[in-house]
From TrEMBL:
Family, per entry: Belongs to the pseudouridine synthase Pus10 family.
TM helices/strands, residue ranges: none
GO biological process: tRNA pseudouridine synthesis
SUPFAM superfamilies listed in its UniProt record: Pseudouridine synthase
Main location per the UniProt record: cytoplasm
Root EC class: isomerase
NCBIfam families in alphabetical order: pseudo_Pus10arc (TIGR01213)
Full protein name: tRNA pseudouridine synthase Pus10
Start and end residues of each Pus10-like C-terminal domain: 293-524
GO cellular component: mitochondrion; nucleus
EC number: 5.4.99.25
Gene3D superfamilies: 1.10.10.2050, 3.30.70.2510, 3.30.70.3190
Sample GO molecular function, one term: RNA binding
Length: 531
């Protein structure tokens, strides 16, 4: 099954005697053939037993059957002795032969591995694979491939270091040296074993760039405290973080192991490590689909509807919002956990959005359904539109995360057109407002309006009114059509906001002016594409 070179005989023997599982033995022997790890545990143990029984004087050592070198590896240390396990005479020293070929094997076979804590034992078997797949299938996700991720207890890194140092010491006692080579990472070996089993059971390929993630979180409470000595030896590596329950994260432990001196490690931790009573626990089996993004344009016809939920001091002011009227249907159809709504600007609660509407996008987090045809998206749009007379949606479509950036690109350079119904305190005639039509590129200085000062920083913003067109209605009312730079506060341009916007319609007309109604007639953002 697997042929190891003679120089690996002491590694196999010492590891099996210490209670290491056969797959971890292969990792320490730098075996990079994925297929070998997939052989049954018992077969691998028997194969290693046969290898130890083999008489090195009668049989020529055979090179390791390696398909490809491992992709991710842990760098091992260089021993002081000569290269490639040779003694000072250039010959391979004799290793004590195991008197009973079954002794080391049987002693290791019934124990939980002292290095991987059972990860490469029971958790590679068909029963566990079926358990994972049952969890995936019961969650009812749509996916065409999957990426498999594993979260391992941080103490595994400590045990792997201890196994390596113990092996290094004992081989030195035999007059052998260890070449500076790489052992196969535990995660890598585990994925080599588990990927084909999951693929067969789920009926889709494993793909490192897949959008659907299946993750398993392992824990081993019995050995949780094994990392604690590192905090004393390397306190700088363990700093509390707000989003971490423990300072003993995998990365912190690895950092400490790189920093701690070999002699200090040996004082605090047994090398090789002892076998635990129990294997790891699979704490969680989780599924997650990458977010899906839906975009479109909305019209708002109500003057009593906010864009997003209007809640002040925990109290809801209005029963619904544009965001909720749209998200209610998308959440139900995509079966998502949550959503994030964004748009090209926003209108006040009493402002209508007409014309082609305002571009918006919605990120649907962890959706269970992700595949929709153009006809299904059209049906979803119709469902939104028939559910309320306050809004309408158009051009509803699936987009990429990158495409959403186009909605925000150069936002302040974009233009918007408005229609405002204006009242004046003093009577006006047509000729009093006619001059407004001739004003082009009027530059405003707008201090942050009083009405939004509680949520926006105080600043003076320069904005442009590109064109204006007036429509006389009666002595105290006229309608003003404006084309402006995006981000202009139109209400404040009309009434002046107690002099915080200069100039303003009141100052231009030399009378008090106020705005009664405001409509957004167009948002000149060429996105999303018209369907």
């Amino acid at each position: 099954m697997c042929s190891l070179p003679e120089k690996d005989r002491p590694i196999v023997q010492l590891l099996l005697n210490a209670g290491t599982c056969p797959r971890c033995v292969l990792r320490f022997c730098r075996v990079g053939s994925q297929m070998l790890y997939r052989h049954p545990h018992k077969d691998l143990m028997k194969d290693l037993q046969d290898f130890l029984r083999k008489d090195p004087e009668k049989e020529d050592p055979v090179g390791v059957d390696v398909a490809d070198p491992p992709c991710k590896r842990i760098r091992l240390e260089q021993a002081a002795e000569g290269p490639d396990g040779l003694n000072h005479n250039g010959a391979l020293p004799q290793v004590p032969v195991v008197e009973d070929g079954n002794a080391a094997v049987e002693g290791s076979a019934g124990r939980v591995c002292n290095v991987c804590l059972g990860i490469l034992q029971d958790f590679c078997e068909a029963d566990f694979v079926k358990k994972v797949c049952q969890k995936v299938n019961s969650a009812d996700y749509q996916f065409r491939s999957f990426v498999f991720s594993v979260s391992l207890p941080p103490q595994l890194s400590v045990r792997e270091r201890a196994a390596w140092l113990g092996l290094k010491q004992q081989m030195r006692n035999l007059g052998l040296s260890l070449a500076k080579e790489d052992i196969v990472q535990l995660k890598e070996a585990y994925k080599w074993i588990i990927h084909p089993q999951l693929s067969e059971e789920l009926g889709v390929p494993a793909d490192g760039k897949g959008l659907f993630e299946v993750s398993v979180v392992f824990a081993h409470p019995e050995t949780d405290e094994e990392c604690h000595f590192l905090a004393t030896a390397c306190p700088d590596c363990f700093k509390p973080a707000k989003n971490k329950q423990s300072v003993f994260t995998r990365m912190a432990v690895i950092k400490a192991l790189e920093k701690i001196k070999e002699e200090d490690f040996l004082k605090h931790f047994p090398c090789p490590p002892s076998s635990p009573k129990n294997p790891c626990d699979a704490l969680e089996i989780q599924c997650n689909n990458s977010a899906v993004f839906v975009a479109g344009r909305y019209n708002k016809y109500s003057r009593n509807l906010p864009q997003t939920p209007w809640i002040i001091d925990g109290e809801r002011k209005l029963e619904s919002s544009v965001e909720e009227l749209i998200s209610e249907h998308l959440m139900a159809q995509f079966k998502a956990d949550s959503f994030n709504f964004s748009s090209s600007g926003r209108e006040d609660v009493d402002v209508r959005t007409l014309g082609n509407g305002r571009p918006f996008a919605m990120e649907l987090v962890n959706p269970h359904r992700i595949h929709f045809t153009a006809e299904e998206m059209k049906g979803l749009q119709q469902a939104i539109n028939s559910s309320s007379d306050k809004i309408q949606v158009r051009d509803l479509q699936l987009v990429t995360r990158e495409a959403i950036g186009r909605m925000k690109e150069g936002e302040e350079e974009k233009t918007k057109t408005y229609s405002a119904l204006i009242w004046t305190d003093k009577a006006i005639q047509r000729e009093d407002i006619a001059f407004l039509d001739d004003i082009k590129e009027l530059r405003l200085e707008q201090k942050t309006p009083l009405r939004v000062l509680h949520r926006r920083p105080l600043a003076v913003r320069c904005r442009l009114i590109h064109t204006m067109s007036s429509q006389y209605l009666d002595e105290h009312h006229f309608r003003l059509h404006l084309k402006t730079q995006a981000g202009t506060y139109i209400k404040e341009f009309v009434h002046g906001d107690f002099g915080r916007t200069k100039p303003n319609i009141g100052s231009l007309l030399n009378r008090t002016a106020d705005i009664l109604e405001l409509d957004v007639e167009s948002v000149d953002v060429d996105w999303p594409p018209t369907l």
